[in-house]
Amino acid sequence: MGQGTEPRRGQAYDGELGAAVARAQQGDEAAFAVAYRFVQPGLLGYLRGLVGDDAEDVASDAWLEIARDLGRFRGDGAGFRGWTATIARHRALDHLRRQRVRPRSSALEQDVLELPGPQSTHDQALEALSTEHALELVRGLPRDQAEAVLLRVVVGLDGPAAARVLGKRPGAVRTAAHRGLKRLARQLGAESVTDDGPRTLGEST
Amino acid sequence: MGERQSDGGLPGRGSRHALLDSDVEALIVASLIREGVDAGAEQRAVAAFRAARDAGALRTGTRRRDDWRARERRYLGRSLRTTLSVLLASLTLGGVAVAAIGVAGSPDEGTKDAPERSPAPSSAPRDPAQKPPRASHGPGTGAGSSPAHPDRPDPAQDTEAHCNAYERAGGRGRALEATAWQRLVAAAGGERNVTAYCAERLEEPKAGSGGSGNDGPADGDGAPEANDGAGNAPGNGAADGPDNGAGRSGSEGKRSQSDGRPNGRPE
Question: What residues does the RNA polymerase sigma factor 70 region 4 type domain cover (chain A) (predicted)?
Fold first, then answer.
């Protein structure tokens, strides 16, 4: 825990995941369910960052494709996360393309409107800030930065794997992730100045 | 641990004026990941898996984009090996090729030029049949010309080196330096024959090495080819060595005297 970078999300169970995927490839249905439970939370998180509230639908589409193509996959647990992320990403981009053709009130604007204002109860505000607002900030990043951050942090891919998902060079993805994190840190840090006021006040009274 | 120091030792993310990457990451994870999965969605995915499995989809072939086996490391390893062997091959062959071009051009020209240009004994093993006529002239000088170009390998060795590199490259001729590969193809009489040609080539010197070894340095340099070396070893060696130089004796006399002699004679 003390180390600068904790083991990335997902890496802890890559061994089990790899074994489950291998068994699923032999036709083991239960093993496929195990792999699903390992991968889905991170995948859904990534999709939330990409398509907001439609993440669940897009994830369902992605899993249909994953189930269909599982026999083609070659690799271990980490590889499986990269492979599934690639599939999910393609589904998400398709989804965004369709949305652009037929625009509706985007998830983004809605979320901004629903964002708890500074007047909310402080604890609630803080709690909300740590979830909804962080999501909003991530989605406010330039696409390449947002995706790099999401793949590294939420899906837990290493640099080369994230680069492969994005079809970019590892160096470019590393830079994008770094910039994205710095930008988020600045934004969150700046906001926390105003947040600190009410909170300290609330605690002292 | 250390990262907290900049926060003034406050626990948690209470004061976040300077958020650290790890804090931001934790926040993102907290905001985007919800543990646990929707049972209905899982059931649908598993049902899709079942349907695909029963339809035989698990036996479909792997496409490039489906292969996520530690690609980077594998590529790194391979590229490192390739780079090294290509580097080695081009160092060896590049030098050899350049030298050989200067020396002999092609084997045929080599014999024509031999008298004036005194190409190292290289042409000797190639055209053993053409040597004898010149044998009678000044026996001493011939062998002497080989030390004149001590580090210039002859085409036979050249070919051998190419073959070695070719085999090292696992039969992938393209991994060789282009010039070297072309020369090898030319020598073998076609790309298809290279493997057989090299197999033959690389066996011969072993058979002949005993013979040429006996001949001493000068001849060894000049006659790595099996039949020649083996044949010469006992009796003809001395006669053959001088042969080489016969034509050049006049022009090369000085040089061969100055530096050639010590190794020149097998005896």
Answer: 135-184
Instruction: Report the candidate in A147, A160, A143 with the shortest Cα–Cα distance to residue A79.
Output: A160
Residues of B in contact with A46 (CB under 8 A): 32
B238, B266, B215, B242: CA torsion to nearest 10: -40
- Residue A194 CA to residue A190 CA, distance in Å, equals 8
For A152, nearest residue in chain B (alpha carbons): B25
Residue type, A108: L
CA B169 vs CA B90, B150, B162, B195, B200: distances in Å:
12, 28, 10, 12, 17
Length of chain A: 205
Q: Do B16 and A71 touch (CB under 8 A)?
A: no
The CA distances from residue A36 to A32, A64, A77, A84, in Å, are 6, 11, 12, 10
Q: How confident is the model at residue B124, as a pLDDT? A: 43
Instruction: Classify the C-alpha dihedral B184-B216-B241-B148 as positive or negative.
Output: positive
Work out the number of other CB atoms within 10 angstroms of the CB of residue B124: 28
Q: Which residues of A touch B32 (CB under 8 A)?
A: 45-46, 48-49, 134-135, 138, 150, 154
Contacts of B32 (CB under 8 A, 6+ apart): A45, A46, A48, A49, A134, A135, A138, A150, A154
* Residue B232 and residue B255 in contact, taking contact as beta carbons nearer than 8 Å: no
Chain A residue numbers with beta carbons less than 8 Å from the beta carbon of B46 are: 29, 32-33, 36, 67
What's the rounded Cα separation, in Å, for the pair A21 and A15?
10
Domains defined for chain A, CATH in brackets: 10-104 (1.10.1740.10), 106-205 (1.10.10.10)
What is the total residue count of chain B? 267
Facing residue for B62 by CB, picked from A27, A33, A72: A72
DSSP secondary structure string, A51-82?
Answer: HGGGHHHHHHHHHHHHHHHGGG-BS-HHHHHH
Share of chain A above pLDDT 70, in %: 73
Show Cβ contacts of residue B24 under 8 Å, excluding neighbours closer than 6 positions.
A181, A184, A185, A188
Cβ proximity of B20 and B6 under 8 Å: yes
Q: In terms of pTM, does the model score above 0.90?
A: no
pLDDT digits (tens, 9 = 90+) for A132-166: 777 888 889 999 999 999 999 999 999 999 999 99
**B8 contact residues in A (CB cutoff 8 A):** none
Each domain of chain B, given as residue ranges in start order, spans: 78-264
Residue type, B2: G
